């Protein structure tokens, strides 16, 4: 990036902040964490943990400052339950956490993976110890989903990414009971050709509510001769009508550069599933999986992101 104004995200100096070596039991890799701030200010990451069969489960890591001294659950926090939920046969992946004041609970939207492909599943929790599963809410192939924190015109709203025969775009759907979903509408299209976000895009962390609109950080997947590159871009949607895209940036704003992002189980991947907001109300802490192998953090100013979209 030539223009220093475009350096919207700063990597944390301790990156990667969590790796498999931090775990209390044997795992292959830890990545793509959901994130939230608990009522007492603790940062909770719900990390995707891949075991040495290749199946993933979720494990909570907690830190006072959101950067170091992570307290990691001694055993898996949320395991796939294929006996009762066959759609989780090959694991649970990529959680996105939304605190829902109306329910006084956290909604964890995750990928349930089985032979039919990845689908979107939902669980509710008050404490990240016990979970109420609602099962699959979007059938395969669909992933990269998160719930909005409050109803829009009386309905719950879910952002998700169903996959079509040639391309994958971002959609919104609505529900009155969190179980049955309809009113499906495409809200952001993957571009075509040589674009960084051609053919396949997906929501990264949950939408960020700002006075200017819902700020979306999304990933684009560029396919080239040596594989794929996962990078991030920005879009803004109307607060009362999140189907309406107000702005979309042309350039990616964050991409793999460091060795831990360029090399791992899957090279050239940065994949955030969560953020927290610092006490100043503007600094976003973005938690991301790096190369499907470790967890890293970068900070950015929401005001700067909104400004960047006005250009
Ligand atoms: C996506 C998801 C992510 C993963 C990324 C790169 O399709 O499956 O979990 O991090 O690919 O492998």
Q: Secondary-structure blueprint of this entry?
A:
Blueprint lengths: L9 E2 L17 E9 L5 E8 L5 E8 L7 E2 L19 E9 L4 E10 L2 E9 L5 E8 L3 E6 L8 E7 L7 E6 L6 E7 L12 E3 L4 E3 L2 E12 L2 E11 L7 E4 L10 H4 L7 E8 L5 E8 L3 E8 H9 L1
Antiparallel strand pairs: 1-21, 2-3, 3-4, 4-5, 6-7, 7-8, 8-9, 10-11, 11-12, 12-13, 14-16, 15-16, 16-17, 17-18, 19-20, 20-21
Bound molecules: beta-D-mannopyranose.
Question: How would you describe this structure to a colleague?
Answer:
With 311 residues, the protein is mainly β. It is 4% helix and 48% strand. The strands form five sheets. Strands 14, 15, 16, 17 and 18 form a five-stranded antiparallel sheet that branches. The structure holds beta-D-mannopyranose.
Annotation keywords:
mainly beta, Tachylectin-2, Chain A, 5-stranded antiparallel sheet, 4-stranded antiparallel sheet, 21 strands, binds beta-D-mannopyranose
Q: How large is the count of helical segments?
A: 2
Largest sheet, strands/sense/barrel: 5 strands, antiparallel
In CATH, the homologous superfamily goes by the name Glycosyl hydrolase domain, family 43
CATH class: Mainly Beta
pLDDT < 50 runs, ≥5 residues: none
Secondary-structure element pattern, one letter each: EEEEEEEEEEEEEEEEEEHEEEH
What form results from the Cα inertia axes?
Answer: globular
